[in-house]
Amino acid sequence: SLRAGIVGLPNVGKSTLFNAVVENGKAQAANFPFCTIEPNVGIVAVPDPRLNVLSDLSKSQRAVPASIEFVDIAGLVKGASQGEGLGNKFLSHIREVDSILQVVRCFEDNDVIHVNGKVDPKSDIDVINLELVFSDLDQIEKRLDKLKKGKGKDSQSKLKEDAERSALERIKLALMDGKPARSVTLTDFEKEAVKHLCLLTMKPIIYVANVAESDVADPGTNPHVKEVMSLASELQSGLVTISAQVESELTELPSEERTEYLQSLGVSESGLGNLIRATYSLLGLRTYFTSGEKETKAWTILAGMTAPQAAGVIHSDFEKGFIRAETVAYDDFVVAGSLAAAREKGLLRSEGKDYIVQEGDVMLFRFNV
Ligand code: GDP
C-alpha cells in the first residue's frame, strides 16, 4: 500500500501522532489480512462510507478498506544532509516513501522544549526543507558527474540520458534557489528519466500543523497556523491541522465517549480522517471497489490508471492476463441494488484495456490465467 513518512524536528509531536495512528490502526486490524506492523510502521484504514453501503448490498462476509502505511522517521535534524552516518540513514528512509508528512509545532507549551527555543513554524519548515534540498543537490551532482563520463551505447539510451541531464540541470538551478524539485516543470519523458533518483523534494509534502486542544475547533485563529498556511501554498504543498494530543487521547477512550469528547472540543470528527483524506487527494489517488459475497474491498489506484493497471493492484496476473472489465459506477450500483440487477438494467458496462478507471467504479475483472 501507499507509504507516508512522518518527519519533523524533535519535540513537535511526531511520535504522539504516529502512536495515535497506530492505535487507531490496531482497532481496525481485524479487517486486515496483513497486520504485521513493524515498530515504526503503522497501517491505517482509509475511511469511506461507500464501503459499508456496498458491503451491505452484496451481503459480503467482510468489508476491507483501503489502507495507508505511516512510517515514523525520527531524527531529521539540522545538518542531517551533511551527517556521515545517522543523518543520511534518515534521509534514505524518506527516499522510500510516496509522500512526506511534516509535523510542524504550532502549540505553545513551556514544559515541552523547542529545539530552537521558541515555536517558529517558518524556521522549522526552512530547516527541514534545506536538509532535503542539500540531499537532493548532492545526489544530482553525483549523477551529473556520472552522466558526463558514461556515454549511452545506443541512440535510445542516449535520448534518455539527454533528457535526464537537461531535467537535472534545471532541477539543480531550482534547488540552488531553495525551491523544491517538484516546482520544476518536466515532460513525462523527463519525469521518467529522473525517477530512479527518488529525489526527496520531488515527493508531495503535507504540512501537519500540530495545534493545542483549545485550537482544534478554529485553528485558523492561531497565528502559527496562518503562517504554515501561507508557506504551504507558496511551496505548493498540502496543509492539515490536527492536535496530536487530542488524537492520542481519543485512542484511549472507549468509543462511546469519543463523540462526547470531540463535542466538548467543538468538532464533530477526529482529525485522522482528515489527514488520511488529504494524503489521498494530494497524491492524486482514486478508489475503486470489488464487491461480492466473500468480501467488499476498496482498492487504491493513481488517477488515470487503465483497467489492466487497476487489476494489477489486486494481482500482477490479473494485469498480464487481462481480458475485459465489467464495471458499474458506485451510484448506479446503489440504485440497482446488486451487480446482477445492474446487469439486467444495462448499467453494467463491459470495458477493454484502454478504459480509464473512474472514482468509485465497482469492477469485476475477466482474465486468463
Ligand atoms: P517528537 O519528538 O516530534 O516525536 O515529539 P513527541 O510526540 O514525543 O512530543 C514531544 C512532547 O510534546 C511530548 O511530551 C508530548 O506529550 C507533547 N505534545 C505533543 N503534541 C502536543 C500537543 O498538541 N499539545 C501539547 N501541549 N503537547 C504536545
From TrEMBL:
Transmembrane segments: none
GO molecular function terms listed in the Swiss-Prot or TrEMBL record: ATP binding; ATP hydrolysis activity; GTP binding; metal ion binding; ribosomal large subunit binding
OBG-type G domain ranges (all copies): 2-262
GO cellular component, one term: cytoplasm
InterPro entries assigned to the protein according to its UniProt record, in alphabetical order: ATPase_YchF/OLA1 (IPR004396), Beta-grasp_dom_sf (IPR012675), G_OBG (IPR031167), GTP-bd (IPR006073), P-loop_NTPase (IPR027417), TGS-like (IPR012676), TGS-like_dom_sf (IPR023192), YchF_C (IPR013029)
Biological role: Hydrolyzes ATP, and can also hydrolyze GTP with lower efficiency. Has lower affinity for GTP.
Protein name: Obg-like ATPase 1
Annotated organism of origin: Trema orientale (Charcoal tree)
Lineage: Eukaryota, Viridiplantae, Streptophyta, Embryophyta, Tracheophyta
